Amino acid sequence: MPLINRVKELRARHQLTQGDLAEKVGVTRQTIISLEKGSYTPSLMLAMHIARVFKEPVESIFTIEEESQ
Amino acid sequence: MKHVVVQSISSIVLYILTALSFGSLTTGIYQTVNHYHRDEAFIFQMNALPWIALILFGISWSIYSYKTRPNKNLSFWKWSVQMTEFSEVDEREQIITAKATKAAYVSFSISVPILMGSFMFYPLFEDALPTYPIYALASTLIIATFVYMVTWIRAYTR
Questions:
Q1: B chain contacts of residue A45, beta-carbon cutoff 8 Å
Q2: DSSP-H helix ranges across B36-131
Q3: Of A27, A39, A43, which has the smallest distance from its Cβ to B158's Cβ?
Q4: ipTM value of the model?
Q5: Which domains does chain A have, with CATH numbers?
């Protein structure tokens, strides 16, 4: 069951570049790229850091594909 | 990714130079032992070129690797006991490094038994290639490092 996320959408809404978000959550830009592509599933810690940046609950940013359908 | 590629290739070059250096020393010992006569003066000769190349490459590689280390907080002593091709800047790189290390470990389980089998025939060509065990051992490290690098690149660019 793949994990889908709204990171790209939220990043655009908050006018953040991939580099900005990477710096805020303490990862590399390549990790944000992979995350947005859906090829990388983040750890719970990283997901919570991202949720804190966007001020949204984790489950509204990351959802299991089956749940969203 | 550039760091892992540069460090993996450098490690492979270092393993080749180390094998050539010990190979030249082994050839020197082999020839001295086989051609020594009691009534002659003891003469030991070997090709010093691989040793010079190894020392020069080793020093320049160490300086470059230390200056370009991903974790700048790491002291020289802690850095010197780590594998330089490891890059674990964030959680994704840690997972990729673990995956690449696992692949390199699996490569040992294939290359080592094959080389063990090849040692059966070593007595047949020992005189022609006395340094074979050195190159065989070096090849296991070279293969594992190459597998590590390829796996790392593939996982990183996914």
A1: 91
A2: 49-67, 76-80, 91-118, 122-125
A3: A39
A4: 0.78
A5: 3-68 (1.10.260.40)
